[in-house]
Write a structure and sequence with these properties.
CATH class of the domain at 3-36 and 93-220: Alpha Beta
CATH architecture of the domain at 3-36 and 93-220: 3-Layer(aba) Sandwich
Distance between the termini: 28 Å
Bound molecules: adenosine-5'-diphosphate, magnesium ion
Largest sheet: 6 strands, parallel
Helix content: 25-40%
CATH superfamily of the domain at 3-36 and 93-220: P-loop containing nucleotide triphosphate hydrolases
Strand order of the largest sheet: 2-7-1-10-11-12
CATH topology of the domain at 3-36 and 93-220: Rossmann fold
Number of helices: 9
Radius of gyration: 17 Å
Length: 234
Amino acid sequence: MQGVFITGTGTEVGKTFVAVEIARQLTQRKVTVIPKKPIESGCIRQGDELIPQDALALKNAANYSGSLSDVCPYRFEPPISPVRAAHLANKVLTTEQLFSICLQGSEDGFLLIEGAGGFYSPLAENGLNADLAVALQLPVLLVADDKLGSLSQVLLNAEAIQMRGLQIAGVVMNNLNNNNNEHMDNTADLREHLNCDIFCNPYAKNGQPQLPKSLIDALVTPISPTAPNISAVR
Ligand SMILES: Nc1ncnc2c1ncn2[C@@H]1O[C@H](COP(=O)(O)OP(=O)(O)O)[C@@H](O)[C@H]1O
Ligand SMILES: [Mg+2]
């Protein structure tokens, strides 16, 4: 199965922003993208329906022919942790349920999954984002807010992904808050400690992301199952 599990160092770090651009660029390359955001809280109520904003953005960017429910069947209104939101709606969701949602219709395409929150944020009654990623056995793309303090966050996440036996597709240092301290260079500092690809997404003044082509190339290059498991964190 080809695809990527997009996670972040936390919430509001740019996972959707990056995922949407990946979906757009893959679609432009004629890759069939199957977007999934299996569970989303903070949905907007429109009449009787809850509209998941992330899932909708992914569906549009991927030009996905399936329904919004195929992308995101589990939707909750309160902008809180998905597990807590599910409880408030008297729902109990398991990792296995989210796993099977992710697999539905994924046979002939590139599965692009956005988790919720960070890698260790609870996602289901019995599991974290990490557990869904492990069930799917997809490479993980880590999106981080490029700011003072992110070095430790990225290294902790990279180690956690590695400890779960998953491949790191790359790290995206996302400058969403337009930090421009000329003396700071998190990407260069991380390269001293990480063996995986590290990409930069600059602040998008006009809302237009500038993800490097090499990131898209890396995502569509299949990882050989016999490739040695390189340690990402030195
Ligand atoms: N590189 C960037 N430049 C400008 N704005 C950004 C950038 N990355 C993200 N944003 C904005 O930051 C906010 C949070 O990003 P989002 O992708 O929704 O985060 P997440 O999915 O991790 O919760 C959104 O309003 C998004 O448009
Ligand atoms: Mg999001």
